[in-house]
Design a protein that fits this description.
single chain; two-stranded antiparallel sheet; 9 helices; about 10% strand; about 240 residues; 3-stranded antiparallel beta sheet
Length: about 240
């Protein structure tokens, strides 16, 4: 038993060390402003924001939030033929890592909307539009959770629905904040985090990692935005 306890303690120390390395590396990352903006959302702390950015890249490559929801596998599956319409659970066909952290963060919306001291600290220095989106998102999602629970929905179903809408609000925030011009080299990110990805805005590519030491692979080729303007967030109505 003592050996198991020591293994858990060692894992905790290693986790703290790697987390600190991610914090130090992200400070000079081109996507640092985006990471900071995402943390305005309730349930999106630093590591959740970093995970979202390194897995998704620049959300402006999605023309609307529905595309992002589908990419994350958070939309309902459907098996319809003719006049028969049958919908099931979420597809789970998208990015599992982002879907997991969003669902974890969605549990925080069980409680009434408020700006905690922690969130207030994260809001400092952010654009007004970002703060407005985050607050409207918190008000809507907290009310949405209570409505789903009052309708008799299971907690897991309600939380998953909240996670889906969280992705939409993160998409809206991503439209308001752009990466900095400075791009950090992949080698520096790789040596610091041992397995973390980096988004390269100059080549419009994302380097995504798979589980395992130093297991980098090239993926998520970023598509250029279409000529028409994507749907924008309307602060007055709290909708897209």
């Amino acid at each position: 038993m003592a050996e198991y306890c020591q293994a858990i303690e060692d894992a905790g120390v290693r986790l703290d060390r790697l987390t600190q390395l991610v914090v130090e590396t992200a400070a000079s990352w081109s996507m640092a402003p985006v990471v900071a903006a995402y943390q305005a959302m309730r349930g999106v702390a630093f590591m959740t924001a970093v995970t979202f950015v390194v897995e998704i890249g620049d959300v402006r490559r999605f023309d609307n939030p529905r595309q992002l929801m589908a990419y994350l596998g958070l939309v309902l599956s459907e098996s319809s033929t003719g006049e028969r319409v049958k919908r099931g659970g979420i597809t789970k066909a998208g990015n599992t890592r982002v879907r997991r952290v969003l669902i974890e963060g969605a549990w925080t919306y069980r409680f009434p909307a408020r700006v905690s001291p922690t969130i207030q600290t994260r809001l400092e220095g952010l654009p007004r539009t970002v703060r407005e989106i985050a607050w409207r998102g918190q008000v809507r999602l907290c009310a949405r959770y209570r409505k789903l629970m009052a309708a008799g929905k299971p907690k897991v179903v309600a939380v998953t629905a909240i996670a889906r809408e969280m992705a939409a609000f993160l998409w809206a925030i991503g439209q308001e904040v752009a990466p900095t011009a400075k791009v950090q080299s992949l080698s520096s990110v790789q040596s610091a985090t041992e397995r973390g990805p980096a988004f390269d805005t100059s080549t419009e590519r994302a380097i995504a990692w798979e589980p395992g030491p130093m297991a980098f692979k090239l993926g998520c080729i970023r598509t250029r935005r279409s000529s028409h303007s994507p749907p924008r967030w309307h602060a007055s109505s709290g909708s897209f």
